[in-house]
Amino acid sequence: MDSNQKASGDGLVGTQKEAALRTLVQRTGYQLIQENGQRRYGGPPPGWDGPPPERGSEIFVGKLPRDLFEDELVPLCEKFGKLYEVRMMMDFNGNNRGYAFVTFSNKQEAKAAMKQLNNYEIRNGRLLGVCASVDNCRLFVGGIPKTKKHEEILTEMRKVTDGVVDVIVYPSAADKSKNRGFAFVEYESHRAAAMARRKLLPGRIQLWGHPIAVDWAEPEVEVDEDTMATVKILYVRNLMLQTTEETIEKEFNSIKPGAVERVKKIRDYAFVHFSQREDAINARNALNGKVVDGSPIEVTLAKPVDKDSYVRYTRGTGGRGGSVLQTDYTTYSLGQVVYDPTAAYLGAPVFYAPQAYAAIPGQFRFPAAKIHTGGRGLIRTPSVRGEEEQDVLFTSSVYRTGSNHLIT
Q1: How far apart (Å, rounded) are the C-alpha atoms in residues 354 and 332?
Q2: What radius of gyration do the chain's Cα atoms show?
Q3: Neighbours of 54 (CB within 10 A)
Q4: Which structural domains are found in the chain, ordered by start?
Q5: Would you say the pTM of this structure is higher than 0.85?
Q6: Distance CA 272, CA 133 (A)
Q7: How confident is the model over 375-396, as pLDDT tens digits?
């Protein structure tokens, strides 16, 4: 098929709703091309001059009716800004696979669309699930000997894969001299991470003579800057198991007596509530890295996420991820605020191990799925709750390049 045929929409011959799709491309002048299991509208659009839109300009649109196509989705999304590209995942039978990626000309338009379209009733009783789509540059690697240190793991990963930027390793709650048996490996690009994942698939490579489990790490929900600017709660990780809430409160009140409202400790991490945000910021700056009961603590702002958004990530159906968490972590409530330690457990970042890791016998077994990503390592929402919920969840900070995050 030559470029003229593609531009005229001749690739639509025999597709469902062919007439409606032809009308769409004639109206907008965008190309509509099907390739590699997806149908791409635009990318770039007619008259686009310059590089692709900035990071954060793409959204994930899930829970699409399987017989809904670009002739319905494009006019809906156009209300929020200029579309750069729409990629709809397609099945062999001609239906969509229930989700698409929509890229706007800038991240402000994407943010507005995400806000307005999440839980939008696209058809009678059918609510869309919409969230940010972010390229994933991190892999989960399980099966690492617990005696290995950060530098050893970093060196080993650089031996077997290219483009490694860093590794994220968490100390054991019971023994700070050991790791938890897994690490998150950050690569210089999504492509580098994808190539490494393919190379490291189970059975192909062992680390220190140990079989490993490898898949995409799955980042938590993002929180906007306006919301983060109101946070008055600190997340403290890498605590000793024997460190008490009283000890934590004393340490944080030492910066300004009486500033701490309350402390909630769960195993090796805690949430410290302050009356004033300024006091929380000052305490974070002063105490991050301080040694408490023999362990250097890490202090970050807790990150608030509304319960509805959180549930979409942790209670979705068909997910590919199983959380790397102990089973004795429980939630607790304070008024309308719900704290979920399973979301906070890993600290910064909050990541979930893939299903492959949960499926490995013995010491590699973990709980069931939480959230899932797709082939490009993009955040995806497997299900959406339609009702409004005002509860807020608090969790740890989520690691992303250049920023700290947490769910509250």
Answers
A1: 26
A2: 23
A3: 12
A4: 3-132 (3.30.70.330), 135-217 (3.30.70.330), 232-301 (3.30.70.330)
A5: no
A6: 31
A7: 333 333 332 222 222 223 343 3
